[in-house]
Design a protein that fits this description.
Blueprint lengths: L2 H37 L19 H37 L2 E5 L2 E5 L4 H34 L7 H29 L2
Antiparallel strand pairs: 1-2
Helix pairs in contact: 1-2, 1-3, 2-3, 3-4
Organism: Lactuca saligna
Protein name: Maternal effect embryo arrest 60
Keywords: Membrane, Transmembrane, Transmembrane helix
Amino acid sequence: MNVDEGRTSRFGTTIHITALDGIVNVNSLFTLAVFIGLAWQPTDPSNSLVVDPKCVAGPQIAEDLICFHVYSFSSFLFSSLVALSLKQAIRIAKTSCETRHLMIFSFDMCHINKNALRVGYLISAVGSVCGCGFLMMALVNVAQIKLGTLGCGSSHTYAAVIPLLTFVPLGLLTYVFFVLFAFTR
């Protein structure tokens, strides 16, 4: 074993744990947003800014809002549990490491199945992406309840929904690109 291999192994494990912490932290923030959304009563008429009775969102949109919040919560929870499981597996592998000495340096050699780690990252990322997609759909329903349905043609609703439907998928595509890039390395 040369010096560079030991540094890469130890450094790689630290990077993996930091990345998993990041996934769990972001999922926790989004889960908080989901709970705040679930606490809101969508059928309360005082929550709506709609003037035209034809533009008032029906009960189906309110039901979809709740469903998308629950789907989002499930996806974020799934992603976080997978990430925490991977993190625990890395920590368990680190405790069973053997220490190698090379001149004045000592390195921990951990045997971590990198393919299993990559698949776990991919599964966790899929859960996060699904959660973001469901949360985005829930927010579209919030805009329809507060500002009027999309079918009504309200400029305020479109002004709220178009940036949401533009920037969130763009951010998710960027995230997916970098996850796949990391997956192949």
